[in-house]
């Protein structure tokens, strides 16, 4: 696994926006109990009730609860999730920034009984955080799970291109 | 007792999972926290207890064992949970991002 892991890391590092400052410099990544107060600006009103969270989880086939936005992740682990999805060509997904909504931040942890952010949901089902998505990427499960959603992973096309050459 | 959190993580995992292999790595120095902090950890556990469990079940088990730490001092926990067979096939620990 370490081989594929380092390959992924190398691939991730080649992608724009994923320099070491993002990885190394951000505190509270994949945070459980964070010191920073989340609700600054943002909608603030989505609330953290189970019904409300359920609605968000089911709002799209691919949903990510993260810190920051896909364009500007504010945590290395959230960034890794964004980059993995990008490698698979998944551009159409719903991302919620829990730093914009402290109720949601706690609500999603309660909903999934999972202590950390990011959290990934496929078809409304909790899949895991960064570690699990990374391992699913490595062992091929992610390609299969995306297929179930009718999403063809871009990595398959990349492999085909390789074969042609 | 310079590393109370690390010690506690180690002993709890040791006790609950009786691992074949256990690594607890304090990665706090890679983050913007004061020197000597115990906030960011990576654990690699290989245990026969994980046999037949999905990844998510294994992670849930580790999270549950360390729930006090996660609710308190620990801000980030990266987990690698392997079965005996997986560990024997590939006895290595993934490295943290640079």
TrEMBL record, chain A:
One of its GO terms (biological process) is [2Fe-2S] cluster assembly. Pfam families: Glutaredoxin. One of its GO terms (cellular component) is iron-sulfur cluster assembly complex. One of its GO terms (molecular function) is 2 iron, 2 sulfur cluster binding. The keyword Calcium does not apply. The gene is GLRX5. InterPro entries: Glutaredoxin, GRX_PICOT-like, Monothiol_GRX-rel, Thioredoxin-like_sf. Residues 62-127 form the Glutaredoxin domain. Keywords: 2Fe-2S, Iron, Iron-sulfur, Metal-binding, Redox-active center. This is Glutaredoxin-related protein 5, mitochondrial.
Automatic annotation (TrEMBL), chain B:
GO terms for cellular component: iron-sulfur cluster assembly complex; mitochondrion. It comes from the Eukaryota. It holds the Pfam family BolA. Belongs to the BolA/IbaG family. Interacts with GLRX5. Acts as a mitochondrial iron-sulfur (Fe-S) cluster assembly factor that facilitates (Fe-S) cluster insertion into a subset of mitochondrial proteins. Probably acts together with the monothiol glutaredoxin GLRX5. May protect cells against oxidative stress. This is BolA-like protein 1. It comes from Sphenodon punctatus. The gene is BOLA1.
